Amino acid sequence: QSREERLKRKPLVNRKVNLTHSSTFKASGVSLPETVDWRNQGYVTGVKDQGQCGACWAFSTTGAVEGQHFKATNQLVSLSEQNLIDCATDDYYNDGCDGGDMPMTFQYIIDNGGIDSEESYPFEGE
After folding, report:
1. pLDDT score for 19
2. Hey, which of 62, 71, 72, 107 would disulfide with 79, CB 3.0 to 4.6 Å?
3. What's the domain count of the chain?
């Protein structure tokens, strides 16, 4: 099945958000710092290079999950973008290095029962 055929069967999703009714969160009775740098808190791995592979969707997903995993376990683990590129494919509206869908990739991780580490499934960029 060609990329064009896969794109034709993708559902049209309205992701526009109406912000006219949103409000700004205002903390009360809490002292908040001026800035927060999550790198200094240990929540993010080092910079990763996706090269010419258009898999920003996979890198964004692993970055978000890495931070949440650190918050839950106090252990920072670099997760495998290649696992997502290779396995979170058609049913999750992803096309490897030709683009993908971050929300559906989260669903893949849930359905799969997790994601491999970068160490066990390193990035190849294809």
Report:
1. 55
2. 62
3. 1
Amino acid found at 31:
S
What CATH number does the domain containing 85 carry? 3.90.70.10
Token pair 């009714």: residue: 21
d(CA 67, CA 11) in angstroms, rounded, equals: 30
The CA distance from 24 to 37, in Å, is: 21
Which pTM does this prediction carry?
0.76
Contact between 50 and 28 under an 8 Å Cβ cutoff? The reply is: no
CB 33 within 8 A of CB 41: no
pLDDT band at 58 (very low <50, low <70, confident <90, very high): very high
54: β partners: 98
Does residue 114 surpass a pLDDT of 60? yes
Q: Is residue 13 over pLDDT 60?
A: no
| Domain limits for position 125 | 1-8+52-126
DSSP helix, strand, coil percent of the chain (3-state; round to 5)? 40, 5, 55
Question: Which residues on neighbouring strands pair with residue 98, listed in sequence order?
Answer: 54
